[in-house]
Amino acid sequence: MDSTGDAGKEDDDESSSSSSNVQNALDEFREKWQQELKKDNTGCSSLGKSGSSSNNELLNKENLSIEQQAKVLFIQGAELERTGKVFEAMRFYRRAVQLVPDIEFKVYDKKVSVQKQDLSNKSNEIEQLTSNLIETSLQVGENLEKVDLASRFQTLLAKSGKLFEMASSADRMLIVTSAHFSDLPMEVILYILHWVVSSELDLKSLERFSSVCRGFYLLARDQEIWKRACLRVYGINVGSLSGSPFVTWREMYIKRPRIHFHGCYISRTSYLRLGENSFQDQFYRPVQLVEYYRYFRFFADGKVLMLTSPDDPQNCVNKLKAHHPMQSEILRGHYRLHNDEVIIAAQRNRHNPQIQRPYRKKEIESEYGQQTFYLELKIVSTSKRAFSQLHWRQYSMIQVRNNQEKTTIFDLAPTKYPPLYFSRVKSYHQESERPLK
What we know:
This protein is α+β, with helices and mostly antiparallel strands. 47% of the residues lie in helices and 19% in strands.
């Protein structure tokens, strides 16, 4: 009995010890497994937390605004996406969009503005380079009268590839939505210049246009504009450049004798005239001072207006502004250029029978008849201005009255027919009705 009891006790001790060993092994395995899981979690979280913590420290240190914080987060997400960490980049994108919903467009606009700024800096460098070339090329004491500025400007502007552009980068930032003049096609710009010159040949405005910049200077030298101007002034007698001493059409227009259209030719005449003796005192004879003005206004289409009046030029130049004035004292006619002479044929302005009473018109016609004036004037230049004077060569009048023709040739005394001097009138070319054709 004792032996069997001892044996049973030994079997119980062996089974309990084996079960305890298994339990200990399981506990050790669980502990190792949990430690390995903790190591993996801490390693992965440390990467994300390190980035976010460094990001938060950066944002907190710099005290950035909400928009700037969103930009920083968006840029960091873009960098992570380039390296292949898409899931981590999505977290940065999500946080940036939560702060500013349209942060992507704002970051893009900023990049575009930076690129435009870089382009403007490059263009400014090119412009500075060309200006430096001009300064070095224009040496001290150089005579610019014989220098061909057009060819020189073409050489300088060929390097930049543009005729003109905005003055500075500040102007580019101000003009965001509207277009600049340089954005227009070349055909449109030249058509605008045809309107600037207009059918009245306002080449004074074209010359002012050319003084803006080098590109405008080259555009104002367009040969087609100056050729049409010469054809309009000289008509069928314009000839060609091959058989003339002029190199360009602009040189022909400037140097060949012509008349000005942006003002009037004015002369003042004054002389003494003896009156009749007084019937009370035969020794008393009054002397009268006669003073009056002559005005000539020429148009580019071959028409001319003539006016003789005692009024000052301030009151008379406005009467000659229209092509068809209604004043009866204004003579209307046509002119032609022949070398350096102007030949004019003019008639007294007839009254409109619908406005004028019939019996009054008959009285005027019976008194004066039909008067036609023929004039020849010579174009003379001065040291200050070219073609600024008109000197009298011949002046006659043919009067038809009661079917009888009478010719009167006036004596061109210097006291009664002094030279006419050109005076500019700004109001004549304030508006452009038709382009140059």
